Give the backbone structure.
Amino acid sequence: MNKSRLLKGVLALSLFASGYFAAAATPYANANSDQSVKVIVDGKGVTGQLVEGHAVVSARAMADALGRVVTWDSKENTVQIESRLDTIIKRGVIRIGTTGDYKPFTYLNPETNTYEGHDIDTAKQLAKDLGVEVEFVQTSWRRLMDDLLADKFDIAMGGISRTLERQKKAQLTTPYLDYGKSPLIRPEDKDKFTSLDAIDQPGVKIGVNPGGTNQKFVNEHIKKAEVIVVENNLEIPDMVADGKVDVMITDSIEAIRYGKDNPRLYAALADRTFTKSQMGYLMHRGDSIFSNWVDLWMQEMKLKGEFTKLEKKWLD
């Protein structure tokens, strides 16, 4: 069956006499009864059945696809698919997706095997204000969106850029930090690499991690220099310092942090970044209750000066 015929119109919850919860779409003249059908719920496929020309799907299956809890009030004959906010509170845990490879926002310290950084502290505060525990789920820049859509975590945190492309598949929160792309280089090259044109030259080696906005920028703007893709983002600064690559194109905040921590590195053009961007947190779309709560929580964090405290701790 053509996917465009699957769901036309508003889904309505209905309760069968057997106690089977279902979502029934408007009927189709050409639909065959008892035919298996796949219903796409917010980008996730749910198997259903055509019954008397209606696409029928278990409400529990829909809830599972959305990462939420479904409840049935037998007295009121009411089915409710809860917000992720309610699900998190009932579960007692919020799952935070993070890469662990992006200082100073998220870093999996191999000595302690624990996460640390600006957004790790923010995630802990988020969990505290929700009244739940926090569980960190490791992901990567390459897998970030797929892992979110597979419901491996409730929200992703850790220096994530707000982009129109990401907003097509997910929900980005209001911003909490402004930044731009800039080069991390060696101090002796600061008079050499004074612009993007000066960097994009034959013989120059640029290290970049795959799957994120750094690689997207490099792919769009670097035409002459050699691009070396490095899976682990944490390895690239040392490669710059050791002369294995000449430049790391990254977020200005990360470049400044590495420049302060390592005298063999220099954050060039941090005051004249190649782009202007903002960071936010990545969430599942289609749940205004949870996204509105998180946005209000972020506004409260700003009003109380909590984000300013975190910036002084991790970014200064």
Observations:
- The CA atoms of residues 105 and 117 lie 5 Å apart.
- Confidence is low (pLDDT under 50) at residues 1-31.
- The radius of gyration is 24 Å.
- The first strand starts at residue 12 and ends at 15.
